[in-house]
Design goal:
alpha+beta, 1 helix, 3 strands, 28% strand, binds zinc ion
């Protein structure tokens, strides 16, 4: 079982008027950058929540 790709290394592959597409350099998946930013935000929120939990103990 392999860990799911976190898409940490991406590059912009195409761009149009209101969307930008990025490609993950690790797995080759392409998604729009808005989607990618959402993923980053969620991951950051999860990391911060974990930190807060640790701080409370
Ligand atoms: Zn990936």
């Amino acid at each position: 079982m392999s860990a799911p790709c976190k898409h940490t290394v991406v590059r912009i592959v195409s761009r149009d008027e209101d969307a930008e597409y990025v490609e993950c350099q690790a797995c080759g998946e392409i998604f729009d950058s808005i989607e990618y930013e959402d993923m980053e935000r969620e991951e950051k929120a999860a990391a911060e929540a974990a930190l807060e939990r640790d701080a409370d103990v």
